[in-house]
Amino acid sequence: MRKIRASYLFTNLGDPIPNGMLWVNDDGTIERVLSPEDTDYHSEDAEFLEGWLVPGFVNTHCHLELSHLKGKIQEHTGLNGFVSELMKIRGADDSLRFKAQQAADEEMHQSGIVAVADICNGNSTFEVKKNSPIHYHSLIERFGFKTETAELIFREGLTLLEELNQQPGNICLHAPYSASIALQKLVKQHLNEASSGFYSIHHTESEAEIALFRDGSGEMANRMRGWGLFENEFPYTAMRPVDYLLENFPNNKNILLIHNTFSNAEDLEKLQYLRDRLYFGLCPRANLYIENQLPKIELLRNSNHYITIGTDSLASNYNLGMLEEIFTIQQHFPEIPITELFKWSSWNGAKLMGLDKTMGHFSLGSKPGIVQILHVDNTNKKITSKSFSRLI
Ligand SMILES: [Zn+2]
Prior knowledge:
Layout: E1 2-9, E2 17-18, E3 21-24, E4 30-34, E5 47-55, E6 57-62, H1 78-89, H2 94-110, E7 113-120, H3 126-130, E8 135-142, H4 150-163, E9 169-173, H5 181-193, E10 198-203, H6 207-215, H7 218-226, H8 241-245, E11 254-259, H9 265-270, E12 278-282, H10 284-290, H11 297-302, E13 306-309, H12 322-332, H13 338-352, E14 370-377, E15 382-391
Parallel strand pairs: 1-5, 6-7, 7-8, 8-9, 10-11, 11-12, 12-13
Antiparallel strand pairs: 1-2, 1-3, 3-4, 5-14, 14-15
The structure holds zinc ion.
């Protein structure tokens, strides 16, 4: 049994506990959560750790398979520019790719990430995941805007899913503009029939996506037209991207919308009826990297929807640290209390992934992983540019 205490303990179940103490079993299970008023609290028994202790982070959006692209794509190219660059350099030597994924996995684990919802277009990450201490949920990403190819694309996804063997995963969609109605229906049925898993899709990541569904104009429409995905007029207009998806959300699984950079009040209002199983995933640093813009986080927060945090990939981020994502939100939205940001970074993600019995909070019997955050501002309860996190 290990007894540890720190200047603040963030349990995610109430106010942070000054000088809070944890008793932790050898397997990482929390035995006691104590504050100095408790009779069993004896400070001399416990190891004192500088800074704060928070439950292990849950990264709800990552593309481990793109780890070898670190530093290869320029910032602020916009989503269209980003995708063009990505297509040019996506191929890489297998061993290089593997090493980059291993390094990224290790970096995530050491910085305190205990679970990851990870997007997969192939099987290249399955080996790294099999041997990792992180709990991965692999989301097999499918895209295709032509109705006639939906069945084939979906079946290829099922084959990949089988290759995962016993590892957790399910099929997901890439984005509204890359999913035919036929493909959406197949994914809906797949999730409705699955015993676990969740829906995941990139959502309102660029202004071009909004323009496409508004009136079939803009860069994305031009690109799709160029690819022969539709003739003359885009067939789904006078709507928001979410209108195109609504009918084919699964009936009984959680739903994750990723990025939401250009989501508005109307979108959030429309989705209120799904509130108990809908999650808005934020990847602020990737948004700044690609589009140099952040989602309307205040609006999202006031809507009372669940918010989670993800790192996106090393193709669009400097590293895969959750603390840096939290710091970015804190810097742009200083009015959001740090207690809330810690909930977004672990508990909400654990709920989305069905892991919240054991992860996302410090309580009797939970096994959330313990993260120490050093170099914090205790007076103002802020993390600083010098803060860093590590799994202990
Ligand atoms: Zn992504």
